């Protein structure tokens, strides 16, 4: 196996060819950046660029200082997808389609004059609505607020990290963590530094330790953290802002994806003196997953970098989507339905938590679309017992940044769409599965 090439593109093509011919196999280690540069007689940055290209295309995975390996083809866990078959899938994290506003009026409103190349990338009506939505929750002068649109929250996080990080840079992620954030770090070649999450959100000690390890970015979910449902308390947010005050140039990304549905107040960990920050909010959970649109408010420097990536044909968010979103989010009936949806998800989660507590499995319902359930045995064992009873669930192991850690003791259940009989049956089956594992 010989890697060849004098440019980043040539080196990447050489590795891909070796993989295609089977000379490099999944899991096999590649030379370090320094060793590869010396072997090929190229600049170290050329080798870095080649590996970054391969990582972004999924050919290799970076373990930071643990080296770079050919990616295994086993599928990564995905939000909203599981091969349930005949099982009742409780791992989707999906909204109830009956509680998503009707888009038909918005579709009619979206029809109009075609938008051409060279025009503003943000529809004026949506931009004003977005400013009104974001300005109360960001630092600085609202008149100077910078707004960017992306194709959903995951797209926003990926692009924010891409413009701030290089391969092997460290990024602080919540642990347990949203599946898409794990994949972004995995494919981008970033070193994911886990920050534990408790009932009040990201922990102070965990963030301080991550900053001491040199993270250049922090991704935090201020409300309805996925998978735990935790939301930042006012006290915790103030403590985190104090820790971050000594690191004003670390990019802080707040992914407030649940926004309109949340039952918790928004508390920001971005202080008034912080220099690199982003607050993003998607409409997917309440206008529907197919509405791939997120609003991102940022500092001027970050906004400028993101704007360079918003060119027609690459990341231009369709004005049709923008107009539909604006029509829905300014319709009183749609807003009333979204408010009922948030109340419904919270009520169903609390009701099921009460069922489990009555079965001897104490659960505190957080915010969000799903329920984070502690179990007194390895979650995978409980999940297998539930599978035999017809239920497909996600275990906390899927959401961990360090898969080799001790087995998770949590399940994530999406229960808001269960009928009463099904909810009672699931609670009883879960209690029996726990008892059987204990026995």
UniProtKB/TrEMBL annotation:
InterPro entries registered for this protein in UniProt: Aminotransferase_I/II_large, HTH_trans_reg/aminotransferase, PyrdxlP-dep_Trfase, PyrdxlP-dep_Trfase_major, Tscrpt_reg_HTH_GntR, WH-like_DNA-bd_sf, WH_DNA-bd_sf
What's a Gene Ontology MF term here?
DNA binding
KW rRNA-binding (keyword) present: no
Signal peptide stretch:
none
- Residue stretches making up the HTH gntR-type domain: 5-73
Write the record's keywords in alphabetical order, separated by commas. Answer: DNA-binding, Pyridoxal phosphate, Transcription, Transcription regulation
Keyword check for Transcription regulation, yes or no: yes
Q: Its family?
A: In the C-terminal section; belongs to the class-I pyridoxal-phosphate-dependent aminotransferase family.
Matches recorded under PANTHER family: HTH-TYPE TRANSCRIPTIONAL REGULATORY PROTEIN GABR
**What is the name of the protein in this document?**
Transcriptional regulator PtsJ
Q: Please report the organism this UniProt entry assigns to the protein.
A: Brachybacterium vulturis
